[in-house]
Write a structure and sequence with these properties.
Jelly Rolls, single chain, mainly beta, 8 strands
Length: 134
């Protein structure tokens, strides 16, 4: 009986989207025939919760996620990207990681968490990012 409950609990845990336990994810949708989509979000400082986007791709595609900062802006974001297997595919670079290209994607949902870059000056406000899938 305990084994059956453990299996049931594990199944339920895996069936519940990751966003249920944190910030609600926003599904990125493309216009018919489009390869690019733009999304907006807002952050309230280093301690704010991440803004989460989910994008579905096919196997073998190239996914590019990039910040579109306003001219002369110092409002930098950091992207955290997880592949459909739950593996972090973000490079740990010395910069803010506000642009990322993933080639030869696995099929499924990629999760993109946007936070304020802690290596830049603190800020509050909106941001804009572009998703490109080819």
């Amino acid at each position: 009986m305990k084994k059956q409950l453990l299996i049931l609990f594990t199944f339920v845990l895996l069936a519940v989207p990751m966003s249920t336990f944190g910030q609600k994810a926003v599904r990125v949708k493309f216009a018919k025939g489009a390869t690019k989509a733009v999304a907006n979000g807002s952050l309230t400082g280093y301690e704010s919760k991440a803004v989460v986007f989910v994008i579905r791709v096919k196997a073998g595609q190239t996914l590019t996620v990039e910040q579109l900062p306003p001219r002369n802006s110092t409002k930098y974001i950091t992207l955290g990207i997880t592949n459909p297997s739950g593996e972090d595919v973000t490079d740990a670079e010395a910069n803010c990681n506000n642009n990322k290209t993933i080639e030869n994607t696995a099929a499924g949902d990629y999760r993109i968490e946007v936070t304020e870059c802690s290596k830049a000056d603190a800020w509050s406000g909106s941001f804009k990012i572009r998703f490109t899938v080819k």
